Amino acid sequence: MSNERKTENIVRQLLREQGYYDNENIIVEEQKSDSLKVDKLLQTASKSGQGKGYPEFIIRFVNDPSKIIVVECKASIKNHQSKNKKQYSKYAVDGALLYAEYLKNDFDVIAIAVSGETEREVKISNFLWLKQKETFKDVTDKNFLDPKSLFKVVEKQSQPLKEEELVKKAIEYNEMLHSYSIPEIDRCTVISAILVALQDKGFQNSFTSYDFEDDENIDDLENKPSTYNPNIDLIEALLNACEVVLKKNHISKDKQEIILREYGKIKSNHTFRSFLIQKGRKEERNTVLRDLISDVMESIMPYITNNIYDVLGKFYTQFIRYAGSDSKTGLVLTPAHITDLFCDLAEVNSNDIIFDPCCGTGGFLVSAMNQMVKLSGNDLVKHKNIKSNQLIGIEKRPDMFSHACSNMMMRGDGKSHIHFGDCFSSSLKVSVAKENPTKVFLNPPYDVGVVGQLEFIENAMEVMVANGICVAICQMSTCTDTKKGPSDVRRRLLERHTLEAVLSMPDDLFYPVGVITSILVFKAFTPHPKGKKSFFGYFKDDGFLKVKHQGRIDQKDKWDEIRQEWLSVYQNKESIAGLSVTQEVTADDEWCAEAYMETDYSALSEEDFINTIKDYVAFQFLQGK
After folding, report:
1. Which among 131, 157, 183 is the end of a domain?
2. Which burial class, exposed, middle or buried, applies to 300 when counting CB atoms under 10 A from its CB (0-12, 13-18, 19+)?
3. Cα separation of 470 and 522, whole Å?
4. In what order do the strands lie in the sheet with 391-395?
5. Does residue 324 sit within a domain?
6. Given this model, what pLDDT does residue 521 score?
7. Residue 444 has what pLDDT?
8. Where are the beta strands (DSSP E) in 375-467?
9. Fewer Cβ atoms within 10 Å of its own Cβ: the N or the C terminal residue of the chain?
């Protein structure tokens, strides 16, 4: 005979284990509530269709009355959920959602359904019904979460900002700063500093007070050289706030000095410190910096605080897209959809230790962090460990190092293992090796040449654990140049590691920088077996299109489908005409699909033929023939 009281006792035990009964800010009630608001909302919420509703448990929060939890129990797991979720009196999920529908008029509701009479068989489902929303969201986590984790779910699910809106804001800032002739790299620095400074409540509350005197006459400024300039004091306050935040986040002193030295460059920026600014044909009092801080606080900080988006990553991509991403300087930032692809190729799991030896702004680390956090569900303890102990980066450019530290810091730690220095340094390699990296991601600087890029891969893999996976994106010439230098490094790599795959990437992947790239995948410390066939992918079409003022974007939403196709072909090592091939190669061979792949002639059109003839004629003409 089923006994629902046993299920209720299991819930009481779970509440006890998760600290609900020991928290003075939490009120746990059964069957009814002392809250007049809750009682009123449940007046007509009966599962039978008439009368009052009586959830098994109602949980309220003294310090956050906008949220509420309702728990509905059923003894048998057969009565956990119906197909249509409308059989309220018979099923746990259906009943919990019914109560949530009534309570969501005034609360953000977490509805929990529990069924089963023993701890071994117990089944738990969590749902979120946000205030005034038309429908609920399945939280997907199947555990009874602690209050902090549940609140995190509410915060994450209630964010209104879409990613494309964030990109638009980044473009807006970029254009504004460009109009004042502020270089791209400096744009990154000022936004990074503002985002860090605004984490200090004192600065949030005081930055608007740095204002001009109301009776100041612009026309008389030449005769008043001692006029107070609030911008100079605002910059000082900004930098002081950055120092406070870095200290609070336990950034080491040596790292603080590097970051603050970079942020300190704002002091010498004429646009930010000058008393007057040219607008059109006339000069006005200069409030550029204060206005920018104000806009960042209102438009961006809420989403930094809730740790939803890789805000800095999006901003960096926009700011450095045209000048900072310059192959001459070696800085080419990897697009976000490719950093995510690395995680798929390496099959990242929540226990991996990720290492990027030339981490730039931290794009690979952020993608890996997101993947690992997602795989670990709503386990906040695991999230903290991922961010604190499972992400390692090295960067030798002080500006990029500063951006990487602030980027990781704003995502909830991750900064303690970002090292400033050269990844070829023996001491740094010893330090990283102690962490036992299981996955290495890198985009080496391209100004070091073909041999140099291969040596970055070789150097990075020396600190990995056996059978770890290294994924690198390099210039295609690292795979096709068969001269002695590149071949010698490739030979050393094959003597120690297995070449699993090489993927030819889209020609304009790094647009507007003209660099053709390939992704290489190695398995560490397993010598490449004789006779083994490596996988070669001709992954030239990722569905992204070049759009004016936006760069390459997934305008037609093709990427998800293409990504799934690429991963399926890669994981199954399939040979498909025009897309992929498996081939045994040596260090002296070309490592690219183009050299071995069967052409898919069915995909060629008359237009392809015409364009090829035109290209050939143009080439002959340029050769003087």
Report:
1. 157
2. buried
3. 5
4. 418-420, 391-395, 354-356, 439-442, 469-475, 517-523, 498-504, 534-538, 580-583
5. no
6. 98
7. 95
8. 391-395, 418-420, 439-442
9. N
